[in-house]
Design brief:
Elements: H1 7-20, H2 24-32, H3 34-54, H4 56-63, H5 69-84, H6 90-105, H7 110-132, H8 134-171, H9 175-192
Helix pairs in contact: 1-8, 2-8, 3-5, 3-7, 6-8, 7-8
């Protein structure tokens, strides 16, 4: 890995990768099943748009001009093809960091991203099993699930890191002080929710 300003962010990716176990073999499987993805790409994209359009909180993203449904169709279609032809390289994951940053700048909450990933799994699992058979369908689903979980974790990490950096830069507080303040806040939230701390 080259020594660049982005390396500090790829430390997070390496941690996530160790947990999800995403690897080049998953991308090999995507490429082997490219015909499947091409066949169902439009249905998957339409499903994603439908889910986002039916949920009041995600629909507001379009209504408030933080997103555009037509552009979403084009960008998700392009993204899916990039995934299918992708490789487990720093360049590929850097591209996903940039996609995550666009979501953050549009103020898309982590909860919506995580929930959408669940709905995507819900859509692709029966199609993969039906089209490819139980063994091959399940193998492809597990690989695709690893990929989704990695992308979600990357974006969630960027949100966490970005929020902390904003606090440090806007207040001049040290990272340790920010961590202590967060601990105090979460202790109060725990009390409000009446969750006893261990």
């Amino acid at each position: 890995m080259s020594n660049t300003g982005t390396d500090k962010y790829f430390i997070f990716f390496e941690d996530i990768q160790r947990m999800t176990r995403i690897s080049e073999s998953d991308f090999d499987l995507f490429r082997e099943n490219k015909d499947f993805f091409l066949k169902y790409a439009e249905a998957l994209v339409n499903f994603i748009v439908e889910v986002l359009s039916q949920n009041p909180s995600t629909l507001r993203v379009f209504e408030e001009g933080r997103g555009d449904a037509d552009k979403l169709v084009a960008s998700v279609s392009k993204w899916l093809l990039e995934v299918v032809d992708g490789h487990d390289t720093q360049e590929f994951w850097q591209r996903h960091y940039l996609i995550g940053i666009q979501h953050i700048k549009r103020q898309i909450p982590n909860r919506q991203m995580m929930s959408l990933a669940t709905r995507i799994r819900e859509f692709v699992l029966p199609v993969m099993l039906s089209e490819l058979g139980p063994e091959n369908g399940l193998a492809l689903f597990i690989a695709f699930q690893r990929f989704l979980d990695t992308v979600v974790a990357l974006t969630a990490t960027l949100v966490e890191v970005g929020q902390k950096r904003c606090l440090i830069e806007s207040t001049g507080f040290s990272e340790k002080l920010i961590d202590n303040l967060q601990s105090m806040v979460f202790s109060r939230i725990s009390e409000e929710l009446q969750f006893p701390e261990n």
